[in-house]
Every structure is written in structure tokens, then in C-alpha cells.
Amino acid sequence: MIEINNITKSFGKKEVLKGISADFEKGRINIIIGGSGTGKSVLLKCLIGLVKPDSGEVLYDGRNFYQSSTEEQQEIRREMGVLFQGGALFDSQTVAQNVQFPLDMLTNQSESEKKERVAFCLQRVGLTGSGDRMPSEISGGMKKRVGIARAIVMNPKYLFCDEPNSGLDPLTAAKIDELIKEITEEFNTTTVIITHDMNSVLEIGQNVNFLYQGYKNWTGQVPDMFNSGSAELREFLYATKLIREMK
Amino acid sequence: MSALGRYFIFLNSLFVRREKFSIYWQRFIDEAVRLGFGSIFLVSIISFFIGAVSCIQTAYNLVSPLIPLSTVALIVRDMQILELAPTITCIVLAGKVGSNIASELGTMRITEQIDALEVMGINSSSYLVLPKVLAAMFTFPLLVIMAAFLGILGGYFAGTLTGVISAKDYMDGIRDSFIPYNVLFMCIKPFVFGFLIASISSFKGFYTRGGALEVGTSSTQAVTSSCIAILLADFVLAQLLL
User: Contact A78/B19, CB-based, under 8 Å?
Assistant: First the structure.
């Protein structure tokens, strides 16, 4: 479980996060939604240690990330898997080398053990046989899947996904959503997804946190979203014609 | 001044939270091949023709019958060893290698590859930059030794083929008043310049923010700053060591 308490973050005079608190439950898909510029990506960066919040705390199963020593922070980081928006695959390495990279750097496994683990992860994301291809030779959807394979190769306890469906066609996006859901259930990970794709929210979302102008405006379960008392959330939800018609 | 402070903090970050030695060794070999040996062709062409031109132009200016022709070769040799091979070669390398490093790291930054390393718990600056700096410090002196040899050889071919100096005079000239310490001085310069080029370019690339335009800007700044640093260091080294 991940808890965040009263996170604030400013860049210069611009206050991006204004005291956000939330719990992200283990074995569930926790979604953070909100419009562009509401602080979703900054919040994710605060969660994974890329941007240090000005105040507040981030607790990983009770361990305060920002009050831990560098070694303890590294330990926590090694329990994280992160899927970046663009995949963030290393250009100079093949797909298999990308997936194997965390094992090379962070474990003392034998070469055969690593190969076996890489083969399993690639098979898990449906990319068996693509290990020798370079990132520049594969499609956007495949890059996301390689990113997921790399994120799960170390058996993470916490899985973070930044806009997993951005730039993908609806069919591929649905497959990525399904994959994240299966992985969360299979490995019992605490999954946090940043998105503004309502299809994802409705398909796989369980717990939802809605950010609005740097504040947490609403939190709850997906089915309760449509009956919320938040005018901002309703405006966000019904911006899509399809959902308006569903209503 | 704040940029200078950030540069020293960046240098310090290269030496903390290091990874396994075997990983650095493999990265060092890769970078040495890419940055050093990948520059052999360019350095060869430039140094050979600089040697050739310096021989012809020196001979053109030495018109006094009181000065022996072998002096042309002596001047070519000392110009190559003291200045042209180490400094000009490293300025060329600042353009080729410096821009390469800055654009590579800048692209890795804006495509979140460096963030990916950080969230894995890897010291990204140490993992990415330290092998580049060490590779440049190791391979640049080798390139400069080669450049000096080819420059003197270029002078030999240009002088003898155009008839401005005989082969015997040239050979006599390059053996005349030879100071072995100058060769050591020639090797110290690229060692220092290699450090400056790789570290400054890495610093510029590593802290790139924005998109493709900013990667280009970082690359340009890396080359400009490296060239200025080389010229300043050249002056300081000449004052200290000669």
C-alpha cells in the first residue's frame, strides 16, 4: 500500500500540488485522473522520487520515502516498476536487452536465469520472438508492452503507469489496459495509473482520485463517479460525447 | 557562477553510488571504441593535411639563405608536438565528440530514459557519464600521438613531393634539437582536454530540458564551452609545464 500525506509542490511561484493526500491500495488499480496541467504527472514524479515535494510524505508500506537514507530509497526504488509515457526504452539496446537491463544492473543472477526471466516477461506481454529487434523497429503499442515487460521483470510490488494509452489506437489501448489489469491481479501489485483516458478508467479502474487545479477534488470507486457531488468531476466526465449519451 | 557550481556538483555525483565494476568496464570499452576509435578517420585526415600545409607555409616564409632548409622540418615538428596535434585535434574532437555526447544525453533526458535509470535506483550520471569521461581521457592522448605522427608525415610528403625540401633535410630537421619532454607535454594536454570535453558536454546534455530545439541548443553550448575551456586550459598548462 502507498500513502501520500499533504503533498505540496511549487515551481517558482506556480503552486502545482496543493496538499494532496491519498491511499493507493495493494492488488488494486488506483487511477489518478484530471485535465491537462492539473498536476497528475508531477504527483507521479513525487511518488517515484523523481521530483521531491516541498512538503508532505510518501509512505511505501509504512516506509517514508523522503526521510529514508539513500540506500533505503534505492531499496524502495528496486521494488517499483514504472511504465513511462513514451516507453523510455534505451535506443542503443535491443528489446531483450532493455528488459534484461534491470537484472544486469541490480541482481547477481546467472546469464541463463536472466534469459529465462526475460523470455517469460516477453511472453507475458505477447512479444515472444521480438527480443532481437531494436526499439526504433517496433510500433508504439509494442514499445509500451516492452516498457511493461521491463517494469515487471524485477517482480515489482508497486507498478506506476504514466498515460499508458497515449498515442495508441483504441484496440491496442484496450489490450494494454487488459495487460495491466492481469499483471496487477497476477502479481498483487499496488498499481497507480495516471491517465485522462476515460475508456481506461471505465475498463480497468477501481479506485479513482480526481485532481483539479492542484487539489484532490474527489476520491472513490469507479461506479460512484457518475453520482458524485463534484461539479468539476461531472464536467470532466461528461466532456466526452459517448459518456454524455450513456448518461 | 551558479552554472559552475552545478558543474562541480555534477562532477561529484559521478563518484557516489557507483555500480558494479564489470558494468563500468563494459561501458568504458564501448565508449572508448565509439568516442576514441570512431574519431580516427577524421583526426587522420585533419592532422595529415595540417602537417602538409604547415610545411609548405613555413618553407614559403623561410626565404633567408642563412637559415638551413632543415629548419622547416624542425618547425613543423615542434608546431605539431607543442600545439597543433594536441590543441587543434582536441578542438576538432570537441566538435565531433562533444556534440555527440550532449545530443545523446539530451535526447535520453527528454525521452525519459534518464528518469527510467533513476527510478531503477541507478545513479544515472555515474552510469552514463563516468565511462565517457574516462574513455575520453584514455583515448584522446592516443589520438593526439597518432595526429602528431601523421602531421609530421604529412609535412614530409608535402615538402618532398613539391620539392620545397629534400627528404634528407626533412629527416635532419625533425631529429635536430629534439626535446623528449615535449612529447610528455603533448600527452598531458589531451588527457586534460578529454576530461573537459567529456565532462562539460555531458553536463550540458544531462540537464537538457524541453524538446528537440533544446537538444540542439545543448549540443551547440557543449561545443562552445568545451572549446573555450580547451583554450583556457591550454594557456594554463603552457604556463605551468613549460
Answer: no
